[in-house]
Every structure is written in structure tokens, then in C-alpha cells.
Amino acid sequence: MKIYYDENMPFAKEFFSELCQLDRGTNGHEQGELVAFSGRALTAEQVADADVLLVRSITEVNEQLLHLNEKISFVGSATIGTDHVDLTYLEKRNITFHSAPGCNAISVAEYVLSALVVLAERYLFDLSSLTVGIVGGGNTGTRLSEKLAALGIRYKICDPLLEKKQAEQSTVNTTDGSVDNRAYVPLSDVLACDVISLHVPKVEGGEHPTYKLLNAENLALLRDDQILISACRGDVIDNHALLALKKAGHGVKVVLDVWQGEPNVLESLISYTEIATAHIAGYSLEGKARGSEMLYQALCQQLVIPPKYQLTDFLPSASIPAIEINQDFNQILLNQLVKMVYDVRRDDAIFRQQLFVQGFDNLRKNYPVRREFSAVTVTLLSNTFSDVPHRLGFSKNV
């Protein structure tokens, strides 16, 4: 069996090498093989003999890519979104498809939290005084809301699709199996919040499109004292309209991890952002590797074999694996904890200094190792201290 995988999938060799050998010799001369490829440059000729194709979001999977391949039976995307995959075409050819919903949701939520911590320090505001508007109540929006709740930060969620399901079914199961009793609000309510954080897929057409969801008309509704964060898909914000707004002197503080036209970035917009990064919000080691693990489990299921490995078999220890806290929790301690694990200013500096030297895709390909809060064990030295660190996702000492 020949398995082709995106070179940016962590632990792909560890997870999939043995699966390649399952049918070694069954077709005479064919040998099992695990082949890495560059995601944006993949061609139909390269994958003409693939049995399994494992991609990330930068690879368009469609008839143009697979028309030379007559034997492929499984396509997986180690990402949350599926807008880069022609699902209708795969279904027509009876090719099994799996994505990795929720794999990097925690990573993106921690990116947003790091950005808020940095901006709170930069502009001397109290995080607990904010109201955060979340556009998209799926895996990522839910994980973000949980971290905000742990900090006592108020939030509102806009998700017309989930709201519709809720109305039709009275209750709808969330990603973790619990009942969704959340109160959803219209987009106008979210756009009035102190912080607006976008976590929706790219959807063109239909009843609830997200393509250019924040266009010139919606952007004009924003106040000067608001914060706008986009860590989902670049096309959700009209970048040219946002640039025009900022050039006109609007004071909204902008955090952009995603850009229209990636890998090409609207260069003149960068200088108007507070934080700018190369679509790496979900690029924690755990987030990316969780996608590899989920596709491994799906392929094992397709092959009707029990999974042999899990992510914890391969994850290394964090550089600072454990800390002790001997004071009550406050915003200064939050600042220290978050930055110890992930300081988004590092990625902002890399982006501004290296984008036009390395290029957008190379920044992603060569992204420095980043861990999630769970990689660090926090021990509270007194039971009187707040348990906020553990509710934020830091591990407990057991």
C-alpha cells in the first residue's frame, strides 16, 4: 500500500509506516511505501499510484488532482476545514474521506488567549472587563468559550446553523456529547462586543455564507476601541475593505492569522495590524499531531485493524514540563503562564521579518515547535489558590 502524506504532518512516519506494509507483495511487484510531499505543489502525476492520500488545508483535492489515479481508496485531511476538498467528487468515486474536526481547536483558542494577554499588557486594560463575541460555535469556538469562562470573561456566540438546529430539535449534542443549551445571538450583537473572534469555515453561497462575512458594510459598524481577531479562513474578512477602513484612520485593533489569497498576502495591511502571523494559530505540536492521530485511527478502521499507537506514544516532554504556584491567581500570573507556554509576539516578529525572505509557505513549513498548555503540569501549593490554571487546560499533578 502506498501512502502519500503532507510533509508538515507530525509523526506521520511513526503512525503510518507499518500500515504501508500490510499488503506488501499482494500485487506481486508492488511494495509498500510512505511518501512525503509539499502540500501546495502536489500534482496529479505524483499521486497517480497512491492508495491513500493525507493532506492539509493548502492542498486542493479534486478531479484535477486525482484523475490519473484509478486505485485510491482513502483521502484524509489533517485539518478541521474541508473547503479544499471536493467531497462530491470523492463520493462519486466511492473514495472514503475523513477530516480531523477539532484537532487544533485548543491550539487556536490558546492563540487567541495569547493575543488578548499581549494586547491587555500593551494597552493596560483588564481582561475581565471585556465581552468577547465569538463567530462560530463549533469545536474551536467552544474551546475558546471554555477558556474565557475559566477566566470569568463574558462572551456571546453567533452561529445561525447551530441556532437553527437547536430550534428544530430543542437540543443538539455538542462535540463532547453534552447537551447544547447555549444562547445564540445575531451577528450584530457579536459585532458590538469589545472583542470579535472569528471561528467559521469558508462557505460560499447558501443561507449562511461566510465568504467576506466581514465586508465593508459590516466593518463600518465597528468602534475604534474594539479588537478584531481572525484565526479561521482568510476569505471571511474582505482584506481590501479592512485596509481601506484602517487607512481612513479607524482605531480597531486587528489580529490576523489568516489572509485572503494565501499564500499571497495583502502586504500593505500588515503594518495596520497589532499581531500578524502566517496561518499558524492551530500549529501547536499537539494540534497538528492530533490530526495525524485522527487520520491514523480512521484508516485503521477502514482497514479493519485495531490502532496500535496513540499520540502520547510520540509526544516529547515540554522544555518546562512542570511549575509550582504559590500565589492567588490574577492577570499578572495569567500573563506569565500563557507567555511561558506560548507568546504570540514571537510569531508576529517572525512574520514581519521573514515573510518576504522565506515566503508564506516556508514560514509554516519551518514553524518552531510550540506546545499547548496541557504540556505543562501546574501544582498549586495551597488549596486556597484558584484552580483557574487547570480549567484553562494546564495539567494537574496526579
Automatic annotation (TrEMBL):
Question: Keyword Protein biosynthesis, does the record have it?
Answer: no
> In this protein, which residues make up the domain named D-isomer specific 2-hydroxyacid dehydrogenase NAD-binding?
124-281
The residues that hold substrate are S57, T79, Y283
Keywords associated with the record: Cytoplasm, NAD, Oxidoreductase, Pyridoxine biosynthesis
**UniProt-recorded Gene Ontology molecular function terms:** 4-phosphoerythronate dehydrogenase activity; NAD binding; protein dimerization activity
Give the matching Pfam families.
Answer: 2-Hacid_dh, 2-Hacid_dh_C, DUF3410
Name the SUPFAM superfamilies on file: Formate/glycerate dehydrogenase catalytic domain-like, NAD(P)-binding Rossmann-fold domains
Chief localization class?
A: cytoplasm
Q: Does the keyword Nucleus apply?
A: no
* Location in the cell: Cytoplasm
Q: Where is the D-isomer specific 2-hydroxyacid dehydrogenase catalytic domain?
A: 24-288
Q: In which pathway does it act?
A: Cofactor biosynthesis; pyridoxine 5'-phosphate biosynthesis; pyridoxine 5'-phosphate from D-erythrose 4-phosphate: step 2/5
Ranges of residues in domain Erythronate-4-phosphate dehydrogenase dimerisation? 314-387
Q: Quote the record's binding site residues for NAD(+).
A: D159, D257, G282
Q: Which CDD domains match?
A: ErythrP_dh
Mind telling me which HAMAP family this protein's record contains? PdxB (MF_01825)
What does it do?
Catalyzes the oxidation of erythronate-4-phosphate to 3-hydroxy-2-oxo-4-phosphonooxybutanoate.
Q: How does it assemble?
A: Homodimer.
Family that this chain belongs to: Belongs to the D-isomer specific 2-hydroxyacid dehydrogenase family. PdxB subfamily.
Q: What is this protein called?
A: Erythronate-4-phosphate dehydrogenase
Q: Which organism encodes this protein?
A: Colwellia ponticola
Taxonomic path: Bacteria, Pseudomonadati, Pseudomonadota, Gammaproteobacteria, Alteromonadales
